[in-house]
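As noted in the main text, all predictions were made from sequence alone. Below is one such record, for Glycolate oxidase subunit GlcE.
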Amino acid sequence: MTELAIHTADRDIADDLCEQVRSAYADRTPLRIVAGDTRAFYGRPVEGKDLNMAAHSGIVSYDPVELVVTVRAGTRLSALNAALAEKNQMLAFEPPIFGEASTIGGAVAAGLSGPRRPWAGAARDFVLGTRIITQEGKLLRFGGEVMKNVAGYDLSRLMVGAQGTLGVLADISFKVLPIPTSNHSLRLSMGLKDALGKLAELGRQPLPITAAAWHAGELFIRLEGGASSVNATKERLGGEPLSADFWQQLRDHQHAFFAPDAAKALWRLSLPPNTSPLSLDISDNDIFYDWGGSQRWVKTSVAADTLRKACQQAGGHATCFTPHTQGGAESPFTPLNPVVEKYHRNLKTELDAHGIFNPGRLYAAF
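Prediction:
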């Protein structure tokens, strides 16, 4: 494994973090795991002593030939992206950056992915292995640095989206991918019904599409890959050129659509591919279709139960991104059915017997 030089500011404070966790476990002290704190809005608020991961930062190892990087959880996403870009590589799942202080550990804990997700894969698909601080304050390694190494692999993936409720992510190993050699983004004036039909049609063809969205009468598409393939598809689809910054703004919620609205909460609807518009009293201007329509951002004052029932009937679920204190749902995540809740409780009990890791972050009861 080829190691790149680590910046002098990078530090490994795993021993200190383990000691803090051991102390909290012995005293039954709840811990609020935090680094950049840019995703505090996502999930329920946590009351506890801060376990600050920000200083546990830096690239541990990076082999551009093998397309593998191992990084400490407190490393800023901007720094990691810059280091990968120097070798013309990237995190293919495009983790959102909600502020300069956003860290890779927070991105993995939240489990969120950007516009490329339906075409490249989700965050968990690129996690090869982790080092995790357990409830007893032990630093254990799960998985490895190659896809075929499956020892503990599922536990590493289990940490993706767990919001720090099952353990403390110390280091994460990722599969990275080359940055496409050619790209082009375009916009087409098109109504929602026609746009959804167009996306369904294009989805059945081997085209170099890596992002597709619709909002307020416009269809947005990103093409990436070999120059000949991108150019041929560009000529076929036509439309007006679109700045590549559009996708970064959508990914990071910097687009004007995401401006706070005191009268409406922001929801993320996750739905099966090719799902028709839901029967909800929401204007097209208050809906932003992403992931070719499978992810829909909605600004609405519609009751949480009504919204979730409509999503459930379509085979999906809804998550509230507006904190309860600012008008959002009391439970940001879809309530669990009794069977699934039982498994969640059993898993939480096994990995966090005293409930010290981000208690109540996902659900009030655990």
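The CA atoms of residues 62 and 272 lie 36 Å apart. Residues 182-251 form a domain with the Alpha-Beta Plaits fold (CATH 3.30.70). These features were considered when defining construct boundaries for the mutagenesis experiments described in Section 2.9.
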